[in-house]
Amino acid sequence: MASPIPLRGRLRRYGTSYAMLLPFLALFAGFLLWPLANSLYLSFTKFDGINPATFTGVENFVQLASDGRFRHALGNTALYVVGSVVLGTLLSLGLALAFNGTGWLHRIMRTVFFLPSVTSSIALMLMWKWVLYPSDVGLANTIVDWFGGNAVAWLATPGLTIPILVLMSVWGGMGYGMVLYVAGLGSIPQEYYEAAKIDGASTWRQFRHITLPLLRPVTTYVVVTGLIGAFQVFEAVYIVFSQGANTIGGVLDSGLMIVPYLYDQGFTHFRLGYASAIAWVLFLIIFVISLINLRVGRAMKEL
């Protein structure tokens, strides 16, 4: 059994590598570890950004449990996450199956669907705000007028808020998932399909017993990243539905999500300690759900 290398020997052997890592470690500590630690501390304080922070223990988290507006934001976020992730994943897979070929038409279609994923989210949200503009200037109401219908107050109808947010999310993100699924489909050996055809398996049975099982790692990645992104939705609510400082969640808070509520508490009402508590609750929710998805994906892979 080889004896461990003493510290002086390790420094002599790897000293240059450690020295080259120092700039990265300094940036990592200064721009990630320190803000995280400071945010965790602020979540246990009452802090308005001006006066010194006052330690209050778990008071912020206790207040969150009885905060009706936070629970409303949590419910809206849950509906949005389920709708956007489920529809986004299914449509991403459908697009990948439809445009998985190597011909020029398939390449063009993949490019068209992928473009929103690499376009500025601010620009996309401004475009959607124009599309949904309440008067005849908006594209959606212009189309409704072509068919003889009356103008719809898309952004002022609470029942349409979550479906619109889901639509914007799916439209903007399904191209990214499609590219991942296309890569996953390309990694499946064609011999599996040829053997299945010889055995008389139908197209559906090939998809169910070959394609879906071998795409489980890709599906797990798409679902987990989709969940993280959906829980952190902000631009769509803030740009499209916000009408001012006091209406960040749209009409009757119908589009209020966790991150916009965090922003509202921290940077509108200057309750930075309370906002930090919201941020850590959001982190725990995302962490637990992502962990469950990874465990489920691993268990299904072992079946």
Could you characterize the architecture of this molecule?
This protein has helices at 7-42, 59-65, 68-98, 104-114, 121-131, 139-146, 158-186, 190-198, 203-214, 216-231, 235-241, 258-268, 272-302; strands at 45-46, 54-55. A two-stranded antiparallel ribbon has the order 1-2. The chain is 72% helix and 1% strand. It is built from 13 helices and two strands; from the N terminus they run H-E-E-H-H-H-H-H-H-H-H-H-H-H-H. A hairpin with a 7-residue loop joins strand 1 (45-46) and strand 2 (54-55). The protein has one domain: Orthogonal Bundle (MetI-like fold), CATH 1.10.3720.
Spatial gap, N to C terminus: 39 Å
Order of secondary-structure elements: HEEHHHHHHHHHHHH
Low-confidence stretches: none
DSSP summary: helix tally: 13
Q: Could you tell me the radius of gyration in angstroms?
A: 25 Å
CATH topology: MetI-like fold
Coarse morphology: globular
Average the pLDDT over all residues and give the rounded result: 90
Determine and state the CATH class. Answer: Mainly Alpha
Query: What is the CATH architecture descriptor?
Result: Orthogonal Bundle
